[in-house]
Design goal:
Number of domains: 1
Largest sheet: 7 strands, antiparallel
Helix content: 10-25%
Number of strands: 16
CATH superfamily: q2cbj1_9rhob like domain
Distance between the termini: 21 Å
Strand order of the largest sheet: 1-13-9-16-7-6-2
Shape: globular
Radius of gyration: 15 Å
CATH architecture: Sandwich
Number of helices: 3
Oligomer: single chain
Order of helices and strands: EHEEEEEHHEEEEEEEEEE
Strand content: 35-45%
Structural class: alpha+beta
Length: about 180
């Protein structure tokens, strides 16, 4: 891949189970929006996934881990000034996110430096592979979810989440500025 991609451990598998239980108990789910030209709207033909805010019981843990990881990612992405998110994502059967980039530098004042995706489960669902597409050379990197792991990548990298065949896939996403 032509851009930085970093992977590592976010939290334990047991903490992932607790976070998923919290978001299923307390989460207020809504359809994810897409942003074209500064306007956000729901487009279920392009992005079919639900999101919710991090439940209060998990806020300190998630914020602490994101801060630590953000500092550790500085050599690959530069110093972190702020975070955007995090948001919890739930992909149910039939859900997906078509190829897209998380950043268009011409449309942002505060440019995103990195996208961080944290996988909260890896069992009980089929599909949901995170695909990263290299802009030159046409290579594709497929990242199969593994509970507790994170992947950080340049937000200009085109990527997608493949359709879910059965079960629910849970993830957390945030951006470094």
């Amino acid at each position: 891949m032509s851009h930085a991609i970093v992977a590592g451990t976010f939290v334990s598998r047991e903490l992932c189970r607790q976070i998923v239980a919290e978001i299923e108990r307390d989460g207020c789910w809504q359809w994810g929006e897409i942003n074209y030209g500064g306007r956000s709207h729901v487009d279920l033909q392009f992005r079919r996934t639900q999101w919710c805010a991090v439940p209060p019981a998990c806020e300190d843990l998630v914020a602490g881990r994101l801060l630590a990881i953000g500092r550790a990612l500085a050599p690959a992405f530069g110093p972190v000034r702020s975070f955007e998110g995090p948001n919890m994502l739930r992909y149910r059967p039939g859900d997906f996110f078509r190829p897209h980039a998380d950043e268009n530098p011409r449309e942002r004042v505060n440019r995103r430096k990195a996208t961080i995706t944290v996988f909260l489960n890896d069992r009980g669902f089929e599909g949901g592979v995170l695909r990263l597409y290299e802009s030159r050379g046409g290579r594709t990197l497929e990242i199969v979810p593994r509970a507790g792991r994170f992947v950080a990548f340049d937000p200009e990298i085109m990527h997608e989440v493949t359709p879910i065949g059965r079960g629910n896939r849970y993830a957390l996403v945030a951006w470094l500025h």
